[in-house]
Automatic annotation (TrEMBL):
Molecular-function annotations in GO: ATP binding; dephospho-CoA kinase activity
CDD domains (alphabetical): DPCK
Keywords, in A-Z order: ATP-binding, Coenzyme A biosynthesis, Cytoplasm, Kinase, Nucleotide-binding, Transferase
Pathway membership: Cofactor biosynthesis; coenzyme A biosynthesis; CoA from (R)-pantothenate: step 5/5
Transmembrane annotation, as ranges: none
Localization, UniProt: Cytoplasm
EC number: 2.7.1.24
Family in the record: Belongs to the CoaE family.
Annotated positions binding ATP: 12-17
Organism for this UniProt entry: Thioalbus denitrificans
GO terms (BP aspect): coenzyme A biosynthetic process
Protein name: Dephospho-CoA kinase
Enzyme class: transferase
Lineage of origin: Bacteria, Pseudomonadati, Pseudomonadota, Gammaproteobacteria, Chromatiales
Gene3D superfamilies: P-loop containing nucleotide triphosphate hydrolases
Amino acid sequence: RTLVIGLTGGIGSGKSTVAEGFARLGVPVIDADLIAREVVEPGQPGLAAVARAFGAEIIGADGRLDRKRLRERVFAEPAERRRLEALLHPLIRAEMRRRIAACAAPYCLLVVPLLLEGGQSDLVQRILVVDVPEALQVERVRQRDGDTTERVRAILSAQLPRDERLARADDIIVNDRELTDLEADIRRLHRYYLELAANRRD
Ligand code: ATP
């Protein structure tokens, strides 16, 4: 059985950057955001289920999920949003479990932005948090997405506060320096996780 490390962190903290670093070392990476998209690809049962629940008009002329239309349907409608989540969540979770089960490496990384907010932390044995000071987080997201400080702050305030996230972490990777420093931290954690995986008793 593979050791599963859950990778999480606030918006723009560097989850993708860190995951890429582990992937370069040969660590299998399972990405929750990618899976969430894949379960509603054309031909997947998830797309048919969403169409049954929200109407065929949420499928565009190209046969793909019309995300904009779906967002409009659930935006400002908490009950509708919950209905959508209740439908997709089990599909995403089942796919995550399948990929974990298929993983032959000593350990794998499960990247879940809302790992601590949502109900997926039982899938992982350890939690790795990517941490950055908020000012840097805002600056990087502004640079990357061309967002305003206010918009980024609004997203931040909807996420778990930094101190609560850190309190739940088993391991913390601080991403406030150069990428080469980050890579050194990733290599160190990699060695540590290989050791943990080799000495596992559970
Ligand atoms: P999201 O939550 O939005 O998915 P994320 O946590 O995956 O974001 P990344 O996309 O990895 O974060 O990083 C956010 C931005 O900051 C990217 O543009 C990335 O290139 C940049 N970045 C990440 N780490 C560093 C670093 N150490 N130095 C400079 N820039 C960085």
